[in-house]
Design brief:
Layout: H1 5-10, E1 29-34, H2 40-46, H3 56-66, H4 69-72, H5 76-79, E2 81-87, H6 93-106, E3 109-114, E4 116-118, H7 121-125, E5 129-133, E6 158-165, H8 167-174, E7 192-197, H9 203-212, E8 224-227
Parallel strand pairs: 1-2, 1-7, 2-3, 4-6, 7-8
Antiparallel strand pairs: 5-6
Length: 236
């Protein structure tokens, strides 16, 4: 099947100068929630005061990249922060869309790419892909993935078809070369792109693409990356 419109827009890998309009224009700081689930980490960026028990390392990394709580909990026109979420599970579409609508009304720049799996370029080139849902509603279907390996033997498991996206191409098209506003007075942090990745085994291929395209070099894509490894998907 043909690629969805957004994927057509980001392939092949463009140079920053060749893309006049970027989704991240006007964003000094960018948060990429890759494998967003129900958007908890996006909320930790914009509403940190609601997460008193946040992991101390994540809490400090967010402060180092985007500033203290009071600097983040304000409209993006003031904070300079924008967030993009990527989630394949269609069961989370409504939650993420509602969060997107609410945040945009509050002045937070947030866009969710729902029913979209971040995958390696070879998978993206084939178009849509199967997505395996483990049916663990109590934990928001943790462990669901595009590789067909599920950690539970749940009779509620299901299979759906979702779109795909290359993170390397998205960053090259919409983040690198973006229009960056000046720092806010009193908060002289440099521009930053922070990515959190939890995509249940697909991270190996995605990281290969990011390295291949030099997107993991500071100042040329992702400055800070946190990820969860899933070696069990590859016999580890």
């Amino acid at each position: 099947p043909p690629l969805p419109p957004l994927l057509q827009a980001v392939a092949p890998l463009p140079s920053p100068a060749s893309s006049p309009h970027k989704l991240a224009d006007g964003c000094r700081y960018v948060f990429l929630d890759v494998g967003s689930n129900v958007g908890v980490h996006v909320r930790k960026v914009f509403e940190p005061q609601k997460f008193k028990l946040m992991d101390p390392d994540m809490k400090q990394w967010l402060v180092d990249a985007f500033g203290p709580n009071d600097a983040r909990n304000r409209p993006s026109s003031e904070s300079g922060i924008c967030a993009f979420a990527f989630e394949a599970n269609p069961r989370h579409t409504k939650t993420l869309r509602n969060l997107e609508t609410w945040y945009n009304k509050q002045g937070f720049r947030f866009k969710a790419f729902t029913e979209t799996a971040v995958a390696d370029m070879a998978t993206v080139a084939r178009g849509n892909t199967p997505f395996y849902i483990n049916g663990d509603a109590e934990h928001n279907d943790w462990g669901s993935n595009i590789l067909g390996v599920l950690s539970t033997n749940n009779e509620k498991q299901s299979l759906v078809t979702v779109g795909t996206m290359s993170l390397a191409r998205f960053i090259a098209r919409h983040i690198n070369g973006r229009q960056i506003p000046p720092a806010r007075p009193g908060l002289e942090l440099p521009p930053a792109v922070f990515a959190k990745m939890d995509i249940e085994g697909a991270e190996y291929g995605v990281l290969h693409d990011l390295l291949q395209e030099s997107i993991l070099c500071r100042g040329n894509g992702i400055d800070v990356l946190t990820l969860e490894w899933h070696a069990r998907f590859h016999g580890g």
